[in-house]
Amino acid sequence: MILFSNNTSSRSNTDRYFSWGLRVLSLLAASLLVLVLGFILRESWMALTQVGLSRFFTDSGWFPTEHSYEITPMISGTLLAAWGSILLAAPLGILSAVFCHFYAPPILGLWYRRMIELLAGIPSVVFGFWGLVVLVPLIAAWQPPGPSLLGGILILTLMIIPTIMLIAHSSISQVPTTYINNATALGLSRWAVIWRIVLPASRVGLLTGIFLGLARAMGETMAILMVCGNVIQYPSHIFDPIRTLTANIALEMAYALDQHRSALFISGLLLMVLVIIFVSIAEVLRHKTPYVVAK
Amino acid sequence: MAALTFLRPFLSLSLLVGFISLFELFGVWPLAQAQEGNLVITGSSTMAPLLLEIGKRFETRHPGTRIDVQTGGSSRGIADVVNGLADIGMASRTLNPQEKHLHGTVIARDGIGMILHTSNPIQELTNSQIVAIYTGRIKNWQQVGGHNAPITVVNKAQGRSTLKLFLQYLKLSTRDIQAHVVIGDNEQGIKTVAGNPNAIGYVSIGTAQYDASHGISIHLLPLQHIPASVETVRAGTFPLSRPLTLITKSTPTGLTKNFIHFAQSPEVHDLILQQYFVPLQH
Amino acid sequence: MLSLSNTIRETGATLMVWTTAALITIPFLWLIGDLLWHGWPYLSLNFLLSAPQNAGREGGIEPILVSTGLIVGICMVVALPIGLGTALFLSEYTRNDQVSGRLIRGSLDVLAGVPSIVFGLFGNAFFCQALDLGFSILSGGLTLACMVLPILIRTLEESFRTIALDQRLAAAALGISKMATIQHILLPAAIPGLLVGCILGVGRAMAETAALIFTSGYVDRMPTSLMDSGRALSLHIYDLSMNVAGGNPNAYATALVLVGLLISINIVASWIAEQWTIPNQLQN
Question: Is the minimum CB–CB distance between B201 and chain C shorter than 8 Å?
């Protein structure tokens, strides 16, 4: 295997030591994933054996002090918040990329993209803080109590729009200009070109962006913790407070002992598996060739 | 030669990285004090601010010591002491039967009181009203004599001793509670109620009075007609009170003994009163 | 000439697109404006150079800046050698289709998607407990290093791959050893890319909160050693806004400091990136 064979014709000893040194470092990096998975599994072991995985879905509520470990309300919280935000962020992000490319004057487009890049760099805790002091009181004025699923969805939307927009922007720029020119020459109007040529041609990239945005939304902790109310329940409407898997871990970890702590590690494991699935789908999409290949 | 000019930034980069690493490893480490003068205290978040102040005063009286205070809850504090991860545990509840073999020193008393926003005209609630509010049977302030506004119920997260004592007092189980906001520490509860005119919550009386006296817009409600204050907790008349205890694995020795002795002494009574807890008379 | 329905559709589309742009710009400006409006009055040199008082309501953030610097410093000191080595290995010793390269890149891509709270759990289980480092700046820095590594390697590998093949072939033709080629020719040429990667890694580390809650702790005093617990900027914002009644003003000021630092880091990185494309073009 390439890891262990010498693939250069260099006969220098220093080269051999050097290349082995590099291999060791690379192995360290590669083994990180295994290490992370391993330790999380190790910490979850107690709950897996003592409680059993099925009980995480069949128990009657999350009451760790009474050894009841149902996590389905929190899974629903995670999924509702993430999918709700994608529903808003995907069209907004894609349309933003379209705006940048086709509608905005060049200078405006440049500054708009810079603004989005800036938005991408703002830490989640700052988003959560702003949500807490501005958004939650606004929602409370509309419909108490304030901390709610809606707050979570709005803040998450703001956080993942940059991810979607920037990926959409780069995949739209890769659509060959010949397509656009040919379409315009045939008399198609601007929106028709976008809707029927550019977007379908770049749809693989757009989907990648959406999946990555979804993965980010599901993994978000701080902003959700500050804005969603953290009540364990299935929400009956968007003004109800919810708790996500991530917020659950953050809220209870410091105070959890033994079985409770192990149960939190299991929810972390579940989260990791969920996110890995979405990231892998995005990666597979990224490496697929688009259905139209430029000649 | 072109290669030489390329070398210079590389050299400076490696120098920079090397310098930073040297600074990290050697520049900061010598500043560490001797390990013998260290105490690790973990446990109840209610007691943490008080122990922080006591620790600071102890450090000025005994230079060279360092008292580290971390939160994690009463149960965590006790567990850490048992596992040897902490020297002293802070517990804001009484010990369980299986914890009775540990050594505990009570340094103060505290109560748990209901808090409302200052703009809420309600001045008192009966126990059954509180139960009805927290179980979701009463949903509007109007039903207990207040404004026409929905009640925002603030509850503590699982595993906190304040929650346990609250449930015990009202003879509720944690499954009965229907909350609108779940919070972690006392201060978070206070901040939530102070930010929402229609919220109700329960927190440590000491923490609540401290914040109220510093201008935070909350007020405490009496329980069973007895006002929530340092005086009633001291007199023992307030129905929901608990001891604040320092736990050690066995009879304390050395630095731990000195610190616990200091924490019980009249020298820190002003600190205890400052936090609106009740110092014990010896 | 466009038909009427076409015109309606076009106008509708234009309206929709411009509304979208406005819908996104407004909250962004609102957020930045809010931060500036509420945080600027409390920002001062004294704020940056004094210790927090009264649970952070008063006083400054000096120990927190120091802790943040130490945590990020450890993160980069650990992540850089491993990242550089792996990036070099991936770009110089593997081809795109080889198993080892795909395995390493695949595992790193997966790692890049793992949520930060899960890294916090891992850091707590591994660094704080298994390695017995406890709640310390060291644990926090090492956990962040694990988080930053995938992105760092990706950026570094990119910067090596963009160096033209001619350089390597010419070096080989001259009989220069592989290590010397890397050391004297490739590394200097990739410096701008390396710097951008490092700076982006630093930015990512500074913005991190969830991974630090359970690893570097909450203590807001000036750390005296790497084994001490220390509070990072992002954690301070979280604590002040959630747990400290009356802590909002200082939270705003701290958020302003953090966002300001991150913006300047990004500006430096993009400036270096722009300078980078010019020398490469000259090479060809």
Answer: no
